[in-house]
Amino acid sequence: MLYLLIASFMWGSSFIAIKIAYTTIDPVLVVLCRLVLAAVITIPVSYRYLKQQNTLTKKRILQIIALGLLTYPITYLLQISGLKLMPAVNAVTIIGMEPIIIVLVGLIFFREKTPLLVFALGVIAFIGVLLVVGKPEQTKGSAALIGSGLVFFSAIVMAFWIRWSQKILRNFDVKIYTALTLQTGTLFGLPLMLALVENWEIHFSWQGIAAIVYLGIGCSLIAAWCWNKGLESVSASISGIFLAMEPVFGVIMAVILLKESVTLQTFSGIVMVISAATACIFIPKKS
């Protein structure tokens, strides 16, 4: 579970890095740059794998391409597009539903039942996220509704690829899987990302460059490997509870780096999420 915790920490810290990166280039370009950087770094891994005369079946290749697209460009672009149309606090609230959504996706699409205890911990984690982010802002109009729909759909997509990837990882090396999905997702998602860029202007700053590098190496590559590694030892439903740690880590990083204050409500939410994640340690591991 340590790997899931590391991945959640990096994704949670990405909120600050993304905010800095957006001052340098267009949000879609940030996604493109971070994915290209991560994909290029992993080329030696896939090269050695293929050089050893390892072959992939046509079915496995299609699965890798589909998972690469779903995991990286599609999930990121849905979230970015939704955030443009709605307040960030509302988006984080929807993403905080991930533990519950993973359970429902598993039940509906994969016919996998989740223990009542895990579902209850997911609900506790979601309530904790609600306390952390505060009261959602009141929004009106079709734009906000579309934005909410896009972010909610991104949460469903994320739940789907988490469930699907866990099945693939049962018979696939984590390092190779991470490299191949990053590379195929970036390659086949490139036309879509280029088409969605609205502003090609670059406002150069070393802070912005450092943020993009951190997003590429830390939040896209290392976090993805840690997450995939973590899925080897826990169920997808339990992993969803660790996703609820993202806004918690985001708040903690904001307190440390930006000197922001924490209210009693926020602190209570942090305790609830951490307690739910800690309780998962005592749940028997899947065989």
What does it look like?
- With 287 residues, the protein is mainly alpha-helical.
- It has one domain.
- Helix content is 78%, strand content 0%.
- It has 13 helices and no strands.
- Helix 2 runs antiparallel to helix 4 (58-83), helix 6 (98-109) packs antiparallel against helix 7 and helix 7 (116-133) packs antiparallel against helix 13.
- The longest helix is centred in the middle third of the chain and has 28 residues, at 142-169.
- It is globular.
- The protein starts with a helix and ends in a 7-residue tail after the last helix.
- The model has no long low-confidence stretch (mean pLDDT 88).
| Tally of DSSP helical segments | 13
| Radius of gyration using CA atoms only | 18 Å
What proportion of the residues form beta strands (DSSP E)?
under 5%
> Which term fits the overall shape?
globular
List the secondary-structure elements in sequence, H or E: HHHHHHHHHHHHH
